[in-house]
C-alpha cells in the first residue's frame, strides 16, 4: 500500500513537470582487445547528479533493471554474461520502492566479453535502462549500439537516448527538401492591419479545444454515472459515509468529499504516462493515433466493447485486483478512502472502460496531445466523483434520484451502438493512411446509417437485447430519443447529396473528422479537397509556384486530423476562401501521417528537435520532420505562407482558424506582403 501511494505521488510530481525534457544519462561504448580473438565490450553510463541507474540484478516488483540484448552473429560468440563494476554502486533500502536495491550514481560500467571467429565482423544490439532521482522516474529507454571489428582495429558507435548515428542534417535537408532551415527567412514586411492575429487565434483555439475536450469528458462521466455499474453505488456509498458515524457528521462528509476527489485523482493519474511520452518524443502521440495496426486494434476493441454493452458478455478486471484494493479499505483514514475510490474504478470498469477507451482514443489525434487527454480525464473524473461528494453533503437529495431499473440497461445498450459507430472511425483512419481504398465515404455512410437506424428501432422497442426488461409502455424520454436518432439517420442519408460545384458529396458538419474526406470516394474521387489543384510533394509544388509566379500555402495536415477535415470541408469551400486558394496561391498539402514507404535512398537518419535522432521511414515521417525542423511546430492543421521560391515566410503561420474573416485576413496579408 505504501509503494502504491508513493508511486502515485511521484507520478503527480512528474505530471506537473512534464514539459521539461530530461536526459540525465549519456552512454559511450568502447572495445578492448584481450587476446588474438577475444575482446571486451565496455558500456559506460555517465549519470547526472542526483540521478541513478539500476543494477542488472533487481527483484520483481521494483524498477526496471539494466539489461543487454545482442543480435545473433555467426562470426561472434558471446562469452559469459555482462559483468557490472562495483564502482559507484550502492546497495541500500529504497524508500520509493520499499525494497533493497542496487543502483549506480555518477558513473556505471558494464563489460561483456566476446570471441571472434572472423577478422571482420559487426555486432549490433541494444541495452535498456531505467533512471530515477528522488522525485521522479523516466520510462525505460532503449539504446542501440554497434561494434565493428577489422584487421586494423575496432570501433563502437555512441548511443544517445536510443537513437542511431547522427548524420549531417544540412546535407539531408537539401537532399530531401531542396533547402535547409538556414535558407528560410522571415519577411520584414507587415500588413497594414497585422497585429499578431494568427498567434492570438491559435492560442485562443487551443484553449477552446482543451475546454471542449473537458466538456466531452464531463459528458462521458455523466453517461458512466447512468450505467448499472455506477448508479446503484451512489446511495450505497453515500449512506456508508453519512451513517457510519452519525455523531461526527462533519468528519463523515469530509471523507465523502475526499472520496470524490480521489475518484478524480485516479483518472488524472491515468493520463500521466502520456505526458512523459510526449516530452520525450513530441511526435509520439501523432505516431500512436495514426499507427495502422493500432487503429485496427482500436476497431476490434470497440466492437468488443459494443457487444459487451449489448449484454452478450461482461467485461471485468481480475478479481485479485478488487480483492487487494478492498483489503486496503480497512486501513482507515485518508489511505482507506483512497482505496475505496480505487475499488470503485475497478469494479465499475465493465461500464466505464469502454467510455474511457473512447476518450483515450479520441484524444490521441494528430492535432491532439497529452494535455487534451488530461482535460478529458479531468472532466470524466469530475463528473463521476462530484455526485458522491454532493449527495454526502446533502443526503436529502438522494430521495430525488430515480430508482434503478431497466432504464439503466437501456442507457448501456445505447452506448453500445455509439461504440460500434466509433469503431469504424478507427478502421477508416487505418484505411486512409495505408491507402487500402476500402472504407471510402460511401460504405462508411451506409454502415453508420444502418447502425443508427437499428438504434432508432431499438428505442422504439422493435429490437431487444439479452438483459432488456419487458416494455409495457414507451416513455416520453425513450420516444423523443428515438425521434432524435431517426432525424440523425436522415441527416446521414443527406450526406449522399452531390455538390455540383466541387463534384463531391456534401460534407456533413457533425461528421468532420469522424467520416473519411468526401473526396475519398468510389463515385466522385478527388485527390485534393473541393477539387482544388494541390501538390503533395514539396519540390514539385515549389517548382510550379516559381513557374506561375504565385505564393505558396503549405498545408501541414493528416488523414486522422479532425480539425484539418473541419477546415477543408467547412472553411475552404466558402466563396471568399475558395477564391484565394483556387486563384492566388499554390497549395502544397503535406500529410504527416502518410504511412506510404519512402524510397530507400530517402530512409535516412535526422536529428530530433529535442535531441537524439530518428529514422525517416515513410512520407509521414518526412513531412513531420520538415515541419518540426523548419517551423518548430508539430501540430496540425498548420498553415504557412511562403514566397514562390519557398524561402521566405510571408507572415505569422496560423493553426486551426474556423472564423472565415480571420482566415481570409491571414491569406490576404500574405498577398499584400508579396505585392510590397
**Poorly predicted tracts of residues:** 1-21, 159-166, 195-204
Which geometry do the CA atoms define?
A: globular
Sequence of strands across the biggest β-sheet: 1-2-8-5
Strand content: 15-25%
Count the E strands.
22
Main sheet properties = 4 strands, antiparallel
Give the termini separation. Answer: 68 Å
Q: What would you call the structural class?
A: alpha+beta
Helix run count: 20
Q: What average pLDDT do the residues reach? A: 79
Rg result: 29 Å
Helix content: 40-55%
Overview of this protein structure:
With 676 residues, this protein is of the alpha+beta class. Helices cover 46% and strands 17% of the residues. The protein has 20 helices and 22 strands. Strands 1-2-8-5 form a four-stranded antiparallel β-sheet, with no helix packed on it. Strand 1 (25-33) and strand 2 form a beta hairpin. Helix 3 (197-225) packs antiparallel against helix 11 and helix 13 (406-434) runs antiparallel to helix 14. The longest helix is centred in the first third of the chain and has 29 residues, at 197-225.
Amino acid at each position: 500500500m505504501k509503494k502504491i501511494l508513493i508511486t502515485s505521488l511521484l507520478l503527480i510530481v512528474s505530471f506537473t513537470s512534464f514539459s521539461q525534457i530530461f536526459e540525465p544519462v549519456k552512454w559511450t561504448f568502447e572495445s578492448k582487445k584481450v587476446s588474438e580473438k577475444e575482446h571486451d565490450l565496455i558500456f559506460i553510463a555517465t549519470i547526472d547528479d542526483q540521478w541513478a541507474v539500476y543494477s542488472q540484478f533487481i527483484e520483481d516488483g521494483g524498477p526496471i533493471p539494466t539489461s543487454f540484448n545482442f543480435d545473433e552473429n555467426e562470426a561472434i560468440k558471446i562469452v559469459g554474461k555482462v559483468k557490472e563494476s562495483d564502482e559507484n554502486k550502492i546497495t541500500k533500502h529504497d524508500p520509493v520502492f520499499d525494497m533493497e536495491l542496487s543502483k549506480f550514481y555518477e558513473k556505471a560500467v558494464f563489460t561483456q566479453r566476446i570471441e571472434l571467429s572472423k577478422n571482420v565482423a559487426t555486432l549490433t544490439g541494444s541495452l535498456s535502462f531505467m533512471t530515477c532521482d528522488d522525485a521522479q522516474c523516466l520510462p525505460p529507454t532503449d539504446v542501440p549500439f554497434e561494434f565493428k571489428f577489422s584487421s586494423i582495429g575496432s570501433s563502437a558507435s555512441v548511443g544517445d537516448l536510443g537513437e542511431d548515428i547522427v548524420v549531417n542534417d544540412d546535407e539531408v535537408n537539401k537532399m530531401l527538401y531542396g533547402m535547409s532551415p538556414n535558407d528560410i527567412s522571415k519577411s520584414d514586411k507587415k500588413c497594414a492591419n497585422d497585429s499578431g492575429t494568427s498567434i492570438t487565434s491559435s492560442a485562443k483555439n487551443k484553449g477552446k479545444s482543451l475546454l471542449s475536450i473537458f466538456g466531452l469528458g464531463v459528458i462521458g462521466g455523466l453517461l458512466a454515472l447512468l450505467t448499472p455499474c455506477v448508479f446503484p453505488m451512489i446511495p450505497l456509498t453515500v449512506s456508508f459515509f453519512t451513517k457510519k458515524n452519525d455523531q461526527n457528521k462533519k468528519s463523515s462528509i469530509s471523507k465523502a468529499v475526499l472520496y470524490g476527489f480521489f475518484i478524480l485523482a485516479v483518472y488524472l493519474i491515468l493520463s500521466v504516462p502520456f505526458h512523459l511520452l510526449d516530452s520525450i518524443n513530441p511526435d509520439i502521440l501523432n505516431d500512436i493515433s495514426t499507427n495502422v495496426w493500432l487503429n485496427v486494434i482500436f476497431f476490434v476493441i470497440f466492437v468488443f466493447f459494443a457487444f459487451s454493452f449489448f449484454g452478450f458478455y461482461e467485461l471485468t478486471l481480475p478479481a485479485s485486483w478488487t480483492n487487494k484494493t478492498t483489503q486496503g479499505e480497512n486501513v482507515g483514514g485518508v489511505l482507506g478512502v483512497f482505496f475505496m475510490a480505487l475499488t470503485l474504478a475497478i469494479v465499475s470498469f465493465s461500464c466505464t472502460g469502454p467510455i474511457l477507451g473512447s476518450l483515450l482514443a479520441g484524444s490521441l489525434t494528430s492535432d491532439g496531445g497529452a494535455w487534451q487527454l488530461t482535460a478529458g480525464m479531468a472532466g470524466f473524473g469530475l463528473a463521476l466523483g462530484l455526485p458522491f461528494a454532493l449527495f454526502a453533503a446533502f443526503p436529502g437529495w438522494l430521495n430525488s434520484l430515480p430508482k434503478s431499473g431497466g432504464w439503466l440497461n437501456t442507457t448501456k445498450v445505447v452506448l453500445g451502438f455509439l461504440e460500434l459507430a466509433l469503431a469504424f472511425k478507427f478502421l477508416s483512419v487505418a484505411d486512409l493512411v495505408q491507402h487500402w481504398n476500402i472504407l471510402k465515404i460511401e460504405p462508411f455512410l451506409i454502415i453508420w446509417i444502418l447502425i443508427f437506424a437499428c438504434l432508432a428501432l431499438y428505442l422504439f422497442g422493435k429490437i431487444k437485447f439479452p438483459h432488456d426488461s419487458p416494455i409495457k409502455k414507451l416513455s416520453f424520454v425513450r420516444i423523443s430519443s428515438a425521434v432524435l436518432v431517426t432525424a440523425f439517420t436522415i441527416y446521414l442519408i443527406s450526406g449522399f447529396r452531390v455538390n455540383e460545384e466541387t463534384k463531391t458529396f456534401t460534407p456533413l458538419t457533425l461528421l468532420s473528422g469522424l467520416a473519411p474526406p468526401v473526396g475519398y470516394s468510389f463515385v466522385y474521387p478527388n485527390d485534393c479537397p473541393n477539387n482544388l489543384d494541390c501538390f503533395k510533394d514539396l519540390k514539385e509544388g515549389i517548382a510550379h509556384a516559381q513557374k506561375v509566379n504565385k505564393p505558396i500555402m503549405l498545408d501541414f495536415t493528416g488523414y486522422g486530423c479532425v480539425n484539418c477535415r473541419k477546415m477543408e470541408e467547412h472553411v475552404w469551400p466558402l466563396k471568399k476562401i475558395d477564391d484565394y486558394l483556387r486563384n492566388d496561391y499554390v497549395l502544397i498539402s503535406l500529410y504527416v501521417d502518410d504511412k506510404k514507404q519512402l524510397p530507400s535512398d530517402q530512409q535516412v537518419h535526422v536529428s530530433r528537435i529535442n535531441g537524439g535522432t530518428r529514422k525517416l521511414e515513410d512520407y509521414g515521417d518526412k513531412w513531420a520532420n520538415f515541419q518540426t525542423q523548419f517551423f518548430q511546430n508539430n501540430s496540425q492543421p498548420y498553415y504557412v505562407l511562403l514566397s514562390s521560391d519557398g524561402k521566405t515566410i510571408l507572415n505569422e503561420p496560423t493553426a486551426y482558424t474556423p472564423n472565415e474573416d480571420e482566415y481570409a485576413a491571414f491569406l490576404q496579408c500574405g498577398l499584400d506582403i508579396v505585392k510590397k
